[in-house]
Amino acid sequence: MAEAAAALGQFDFAGDDHVVPFQVEGLDVRGRAVQLGPMLDAILERHHYPAPVARLLAEVVVLTVLLGTSLKFDGKFTVQTKGDGPVDLLVADFSTPENVRAYARFDQALLNKAIEASETEPEQLLGKGVLAFTIDQGKFSQPYQGIVPLDGTTLEEIAGVYFRQSEQIPTRVRLAAAELFDRDDAGKPRHRWRAGGLVAQFLPEAPERMRQPDLHGGDGDTGSRPHGDDDAWVEARSLVETIDADELTDPLVGTERLLFRLFHERGVRVYEPRAVFDRCSCSRDKIKGVLKGFSAEEIEASQENGEIAVTCEFCSTTYRFEPAELQPAE
Predict the structure, then answer these.
(1) Region annotation Disordered: residue ranges (predicted)?
(2) Is residue 221 part of a domain?
(3) Cβ contacts of residue 88 below 8 Å, gap of 6+?
(4) pLDDT at 139 over 90
């Protein structure tokens, strides 16, 4: 069943932690936009990440949510970075229809050096490496993985390369994260994280209008009808470029207000928002199943004070097991 569309103002604003699909008919553009608040804050505060790490992971979470909510099937979408910078690993995944989890791994000593040298831009923290996008439809299908290099450019630009390589769809991505300092209802100082993002894609009815120029080294005709020559996409991309980072994270702006500001002259329409939640997929039974595959020697080596404790890297939940629980039934 098709999603119901509405002009801006016909229903309540989506608010935080809701992805808003949109369409700009006058420009042949579709996309999604989101502002993340309490959901993101819960993920980041659980681990007490240093601010540069939290900001970087927040952008990855936004990117994962924007792309994951486009899945038309049950499955999981994962974004993972692996690099040689102070933040050597970032992982965020979206499990349909609405669950998000994420974590970061970093070297504290290298991070301290980067902070002292004022080298805390995302590309500086990640270093050289790869960014992988993985789509997993379950045990009856082979996962699809697209890999693009971490080459010193921003996550926004890297995401654009992914779409160019994998889907051949002209795409522009915007991401931002921010710390919010205010006071709670009792007047006490409060610190929160927010983030926002937008993905816009050029999807005209005539497929030849959206043809992208071939990647360097390809065999195609690189001068034939590149998407950059299409006036509609040029206009849409230029409008998206005008977004300030503050607009993506400001709770007073709101997703629908931003979309209206960008595209109202072209007839922007928004669709029913989709809520996303901070929910981990770990469980005691799953971890117990993994531990039962350990050898007796491995179980012995994993014990501490007569028990085995396993902490989930995503949600920080610790599961404790008695060695006898893991012995095979006689």
Answers:
(1) 206-229
(2) no
(3) 82, 105, 106, 107, 127, 129
(4) no
Contact 75, 207 (CB under 8 A): no
Look up the pTM and report it: 0.86
CATH code (residue 241): 3.55.30.10
- Residue 8 resides in a domain: no
pLDDT tens sequence across 47-102: 999 999 999 999 999 999 999 999 888 899 999 999 999 999 999 999 999 999 99
* Number of other residues whose CB lies within 10 A of the CB of residue 127: 18
- What pLDDT is recorded for position 202? 93
Residues 296 and 267 in one domain: no
Q: Which domain holds residue 132?
A: 18-212+229-278
Same domain, 247 and 319: no
Residue 93 lies in a domain: yes
Instruction: Report the pLDDT averaged over residues 233-248.
Output: 95
Q: Which position has the higher pLDDT, 325 or 317?
A: 317
Examine the domain organization and report whether 310 and 161 are in the same domain: no
In this structure, is residue 2 part of a structural domain?
no
Are 99 and 277 within 8 A, CB to CB? yes
Domain count along the chain? 2
Same domain, 238 and 318: no
At 185, list the tokens. 């209802």
How far apart, in Å, do the first and last CA atoms of the chain sit?
A: 52
CA distance 113 to 117: 6
Contact 195, 59 (CB under 8 A): yes
**Distances from the Cα of 314 to the Cα of 74, 136, 279, 311, angstroms:** 21, 19, 9, 9
Mean per-residue pLDDT, 268-293: 93
